[in-house]
C-alpha cells in the first residue's frame, strides 16, 4: 500500500469521525437547532484535514438530516426531529424482558416446526451445505483416529480447529490467540457463556432493535434488563443513541449482531464500528458480538467484527450457518475472560463433540471451506434477490422490505392499517406457510406490522405462490379496513 493510498484511506474514515463528533454535540445540546456549523475552511483547519474531507463531513451531516445547507450562508444545524426533543428517559428506560405471554409462547413453539413452505427459519436447504463432505471426513477421522470418540471430552476445544479459527481471523482484522478461543455447542452457547461471564442479574444490556428473539429470551432467562436501540435509516443501529447510552453509563454491556444483522441483514460500517468500540472501551462497556452471519456477507471482502477495533470485545461465532445447521459447533474468543468462560463451560455442558470439531478443522485447513463459501454466498444472494422482488411485486403499495448484505432473511414492514402480523402468522401456518412474526423481535408491540422471511430454502413456484398468498391476505385486510 502506497503512502498516498494510506492517506486517502485515513481521510476517508476521518470525515465520519468528525461527523460523529458534531452529531454528539447536536444531541447533547451544545449545538442548538438552526445554529451555524463551522465552515468548510474552518473545519479543515480545526481538524487538520483537506477541504474535500471537510466538505464531505458537512454533506454527510446533511444527508443524515443533521444539517441543512443555505445558499450563500453555509451549513446550519437542522431543526430537531421529534425523537431528539424527547427526554432521554422517555425512550431509553431499561426494560425487563417479560415472560412470554401464552400467544407468543405458542408462536415460538410453532416457529421452526414442520410446515409445507419454510419461510420462518434463518438457515437453508440441505443442498446448500457440504454435508456429504463433512460426513465423509467424520467417517475417515473416526476410523483413523478412534481417540476422537473414545477419549473424555475435556479442555477448551480441539487444538487444530482453534488454530484454524485464529488463522482465518487475521483475514478479517483480528489478531487473536488460539489459547483464548473456547469451542462451544453452537454460537448460542458461546453468547450465553459470554453474558454470564460479564454481567450480573439486574444489569442493563443494550441491544439492536429489532433484536433476534432468541437473544431477547436469553436475556430474560439471565434476569438482565434491556434497552432496545432502533436502527437508523441505513438499516443498522442508531450509533449516536447507542454511544450516548455508553457515555451516560446507562448500560453495562452491548450485545450485537453487527455483521449481517438478524433480521435486517445489514452490517455496521467499519468507521462506525471503530467509533462504537472506542466509546465502549472509554466507558467500560463490554461488547459481546454474535458474528455467526459474517461469513455469509455478499461483498468481495468479509466485514470486520468489533473485535478488529478493540481487543476487549468478546467475539462469538460458529459454523451452523455455513457448514451445516446440525453441526452445532460454535466458539467464543476473549482476551480478558477466558478463565471464567472455560469454568462456566465446564460446569454447563463440560465439552463439545471432538469428532465434529476435527472434521471442520480439516475442511478449513484444506481450503474446502473457502470454496464452499463462494458458492453459498452466490446462491443466497440470488435467492434473496428473487424473494425481495416478489415481495415488492405482490404486496400492496407502502410495503417496505429490507435489502440484506448477506445471510438468509428479509424483513418486511407492511403498510399502515394492514392486518396484525399475529393474525397473519396463524393464517399462514394454517395454510402450511411458516413466517417469523415481528412481535417476537421486541419487548413490546412495535413490530406487530412486520415479519421476517427466510430465503434459504430456494426459489421455486411454491415459494412464489406462498409470497403471493401472504400479499393477498395483506391486501384484503387493507380493503376491508
TrEMBL record:
In the C-terminal section; belongs to the class-I pyridoxal-phosphate-dependent aminotransferase family. It comes from Pantoea wallisii. The lineage of its organism: Bacteria, Pseudomonadati, Pseudomonadota, Gammaproteobacteria, Enterobacterales. Keywords: DNA-binding, Pyridoxal phosphate, Transcription, Transcription regulation. SMART domains: HTH_GNTR (SM00345). Residues 12-80 form the HTH gntR-type domain. The keyword Amino-acid biosynthesis does not apply. SUPFAM superfamilies: PLP-dependent transferases, Winged helix' DNA-binding domain. InterPro entries: Aminotransferase_I/II_large (IPR004839), HTH_trans_reg/aminotransferase (IPR051446), PyrdxlP-dep_Trfase (IPR015424), PyrdxlP-dep_Trfase_major (IPR015421), PyrdxlP-dep_Trfase_small (IPR015422), Tscrpt_reg_HTH_GntR (IPR000524), WH-like_DNA-bd_sf (IPR036388), WH_DNA-bd_sf (IPR036390). This is GntR family transcriptional regulator.
Amino acid at each position: 500500500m502506497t503512502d498516498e493510498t494510506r492517506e486517502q484511506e485515513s481521510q476517508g474514515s476521518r470525515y465520519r469521525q468528525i461527523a460523529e463528533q458534531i452529531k454528539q454535540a447536536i444531541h447533547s445540546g451544545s449545538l442548538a437547532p438552526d445554529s451555524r456549523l463551522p465552515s468548510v475552511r474552518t473545519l479543515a483547519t480545526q481538524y487538520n484535514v483537506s477541504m474535500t474531507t471537510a466538505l464531505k463531513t458537512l454533506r454527510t451531516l446533511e444527508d443524515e438530516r443533521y444539517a441543512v445547507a443555505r445558499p450563500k450562508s453555509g451549513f446550519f444545524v437542522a431543526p430537531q426531529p421529534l425523537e431528539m426533543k424527547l427526554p432521554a428517559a422517555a425512550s431509553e428506560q431499561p426494560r425487563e424482558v417479560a415472560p412470554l405471554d401464552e400467544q407468543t409462547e405458542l408462536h415460538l413453539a410453532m416457529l421452526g416446526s414442520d410446515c409445507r413452505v419454510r419461510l420462518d427459519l434463518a438457515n437453508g436447504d440441505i443442498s446448500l451445505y457440504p454435508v456429504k463432505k463433512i460426513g465423509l471426513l467424520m467417517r475417515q477421522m473416526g476410523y483413523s483416529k478412534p481417540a476422537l470418540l473414545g477419549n473424555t471430552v475435556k479442555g477448551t476445544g480441539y487444538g487444530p480447529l482453534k488454530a484454524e479459527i485464529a488463522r482465518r481471523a487475521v483475514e478479517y482484522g483480528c489478531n487473536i490467540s488460539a489459547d483464548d478461543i473456547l469451542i462451544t455447542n453452537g454460537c448460542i452457547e458461546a453468547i450465553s457463556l459470554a453474558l454470564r461471564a460479564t454481567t450480573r442479574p439486574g444489569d442493563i444490556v443494550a441491544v439492536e432493535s429489532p433484536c433476534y428473539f432468541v437473544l431477547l429470551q436469553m436475556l430474560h432467562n439471565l434476569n438482565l434488563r434491556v434497552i432496545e436501540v432502533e436502527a437508523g435509516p441505513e438499516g443498522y443501529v442508531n450509533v449516536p443513541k447507542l454511544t450516548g447510552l455508553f457515555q451516560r453509563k446507562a448500560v453495562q454491556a452491548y450485545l450485537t449482531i453487527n455483521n449481517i444483522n438478524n433480521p435486517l441483514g445489514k452490517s455496521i460500517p467499519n468507521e462506525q464500528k471503530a467509533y462504537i468500540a472506542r466509546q465502549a472501551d472509554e466507558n467500560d462497556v463490554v461488547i459481546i458480538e454474535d458474528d455467526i452471519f459474517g461469513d455469509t456477507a455478499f461483498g468481495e471482502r468479509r466485514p470486520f467484527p468489533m473485535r478488529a477495533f478493540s481487543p476487549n470485545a468478546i467475539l462469538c461465532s460458529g459454523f451452523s450457518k455455513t457448514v451445516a445447521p446440525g453441526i452445532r459447533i460454535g466458539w467464543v474468543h476473549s482476551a480478558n475472560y477466558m478463565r471464567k468462560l472455560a469454568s462456566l463451560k465446564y460446569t454447563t455442558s463440560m465439552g463439545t463433540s471432538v469428532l465434529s470439531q476435527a472434521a471442520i478443522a480439516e475442511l478449513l485447513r484444506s481450503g474446502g471451506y473457502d470454496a464452499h463459501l463462494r458458492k453459498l454466498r452466490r446462491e443466497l444472494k440470488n435467492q434473496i434477490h428473487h424473494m425481495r422482488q416478489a415481495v415488492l411485486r405482490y404486496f400492496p403499495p407502502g410495503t417496505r422490505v429490507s435489502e440484506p448484505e448477506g445471510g438468509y432473511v428479509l424483513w418486511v414492514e407492511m403498510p399502515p392499517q394492514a392486518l396484525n402480523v399475529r393474525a397473519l402468522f396463524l393464517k399462514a401456518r394454517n395454510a402450511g406457510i411458516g413466517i417469523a412474526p415481528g412481535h417476537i423481535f421486541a419487548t413490546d408491540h412495535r413490530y406487530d406490522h412486520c415479519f421476517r422471511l427466510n430465503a434459504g430454502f430456494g426459489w421455486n413456484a411454491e415459494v412464489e405462490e406462498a409470497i403471493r398468498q401472504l400479499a393477498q391476505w395483506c391486501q384484503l385486510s387493507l380493503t376491508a379496513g
